[in-house]
Amino acid sequence: MLDLGKIQSIATSYSPQELFAALVWQRRFNEFDGEEVITDLSNHRNLWASFLFTKPIFAPDENGLSFGGMVDTLLAMANYRPMPETSIIHFIAYPADTLYILTENQDTKVSELLDLGKKWRADSVEVSDGTNEDYGLRLQRRLRTRLEGALLGEDVHQDCDAVVVCYWWD
Length: 170
Known about the structure:
Elements: H1 4-13, H2 16-26, E1 28-29, E2 32-33, H3 34-43, E3 50-54, H4 65-79, E4 98-104, H5 107-119, E5 124-128, H6 137-147, E6 151-152, E7 159-160, E8 162-168
Antiparallel strand pairs: 1-2, 3-4, 4-8, 5-8, 6-7
Helix pairs in contact: 2-3
């Protein structure tokens, strides 16, 4: 059941980025420590424009892995029940394992984000500007166009190119 009063309060008090930060903060599995990731992102606010924590997104998705990850997330959210710490049953609140960070296409920023991936013990760290060989040429052009001049610089009239840094934990 949804508590509309609580939802309204949360919606007017927090940005979408803060809501995703809370989801990351909650997660701890294998080498992933959500609290450490959010603390570092907060301390390095100049490195990123936004981030999204989810299941991996594959393109092309011939085996339905992206759809399967989305279904896993929906099932976990549908079946989640808060349990006391003493309970032997624990539900995964948000089963994400992949962090996507949107950042300016600047070598120094990307390099620092890659270093954070090592610190966070990510199993895989990749940088994408939309020119992934797995994507068809049409999709590559579309993604590249979306990332070129996508971020507003300090001066609203100065656009910046963007890249996505992807971190995955097994």
